[in-house]
Structure formats: structure tokens, C-alpha cells
Amino acid sequence: MAGSSESSSAAERIGYITRVQSFSACHRLHSIHLSDEENKSVYGKCNNPNGHGHNYKVEVTVRGKIDRCTGMVMNLTDLKKAIEEVIMTPLDHRNLDKDVPYFSSVASTTENLAVYIWDHMVKALPPNLLYEIKIYETDKNVVIYRGE
Ligand SMILES: Nc1nc2c(c(=O)[nH]1)N=C([C@H](O)[C@H](O)COP(=O)(O)OP(=O)(O)OP(=O)(O)O)CN2
Ligand SMILES: [Zn+2]
């Protein structure tokens, strides 16, 4: 019956699931498009040549149909594997600027880190599932990227 709880329970449901992952890395904010003086002025203490570290927290959210048979949008075990491959292996305990080739020419801001993770995660997951990458650089500094 239209509108009854029975019919809505048969309707397709969309769910969002998130897995949280922490990793540690160091970096220096520096843009190859700016002079040394401009870098100092724009990034301040974060342009210190010897860098500084963060305990980043990343939330990876997928969105999709809740499968009627499995009850899952996707298996969190598979999401965990993708996070290991895309986040932990290349980024954990690394110097982002020196160890990750992408950041040799792209400033390692949290915005750009979110784009990097999105671009790799989207390839590691089934099509059309990735919804959002949210990164806590510190407790107070949070970036969201949705692939736009
Ligand atoms: N738009 C952005 N601005 C800044 C970024 C960034 O990624 N995107 N990053 C930084 C630095 O990396 C820096 O490490 C931030 O640290 P800090 O200012 O010390 O962090 P808090 O604000 O949490 O610290 P408090 O000193 O407690 O306020 C800078 N800008
Ligand atoms: Zn920083």
C-alpha cells in the first residue's frame, strides 16, 4: 500500500557509511608558485624549512543503495583495505613533501591532501560510491572534499 510502512520498507534505501583512519606525517607548507618571501608571508610558521608534524584523522564516507540481501552499502572490510592502500601505505609516518611525489609540485595543504586522497580512493572503490573525504589536520582545522 502506498505510503504504508510495509511499502516503504520495500523501497530502495540509500545509506552513508564512514570509516575513520588516523595517520601521522610531517610537512612544510611551501608553494613552488611563490617566491621564498611570499611563501614566508603566506604560510608563516608553517613554512619553516624543517617542517612540522600532524596526527591527521581522515573520515572516508561512501554513499549507496543498502543491498537487500547483504544489508550493506559496501563491506567495511573492503573499505578498510582501500584505506590501507590509499592512505596508510603511502602517507603514514611519511614526509608528505619528500616521500609522496604528488606533493613535490603541489603544496601539502589539507585541501590538497583531501584531493589527493579522493583521486586515489575513487579509483580503489567500486564506481559511484565515494561521497566525501573529511580530514582533521588538528582538532580545530577540518577540511571536506566531495570531488567537485
Ligand atoms: N587553508 C589552510 N590553511 C592552513 C593549513 C591548511 O592545510 N589549509 N595548514 C596550516 C598548517 O599546516 C598548520 O600546521 C596549522 O597548525 P596550527 O595553526 O598550529 O593549528 P591550530 O589552528 O589547530 O593550532 P592553534 O595554535 O591551537 O590555533 C596552516 N594554515
Ligand atoms: Zn601543518
TrEMBL record:
Its EC number is 4.2.3.12. Keywords: Lyase, Metal-binding, Tetrahydrobiopterin biosynthesis, Zinc. Pathway: Cofactor biosynthesis; tetrahydrobiopterin biosynthesis; tetrahydrobiopterin from 7,8-dihydroneopterin triphosphate: step 1/3. GO terms for biological process: tetrahydrobiopterin biosynthetic process. Its cofactor is Zn(2+). The keyword Hydrolase does not apply. The active site is at C46 (proton acceptor), H93 (charge relay system), E137 (charge relay system). InterPro entries: 6-PTP_synth/QueD, 6-PTP_synth/QueD_sf, PTPS_Cys_AS. It catalyses: 7,8-dihydroneopterin 3'-triphosphate = 6-pyruvoyl-5,6,7,8-tetrahydropterin + triphosphate + H(+). One of its GO terms (molecular function) is 6-pyruvoyltetrahydropterin synthase activity. Binds 1 zinc ion per subunit. One of its GO terms (cellular component) is mitochondrion. NCBIfam families: 6PTHBS (TIGR00039). Belongs to the PTPS family. Involved in the biosynthesis of tetrahydrobiopterin, an essential cofactor of aromatic amino acid hydroxylases. Catalyzes the transformation of 7,8-dihydroneopterin triphosphate into 6-pyruvoyl tetrahydropterin. This is 6-pyruvoyl tetrahydrobiopterin synthase.
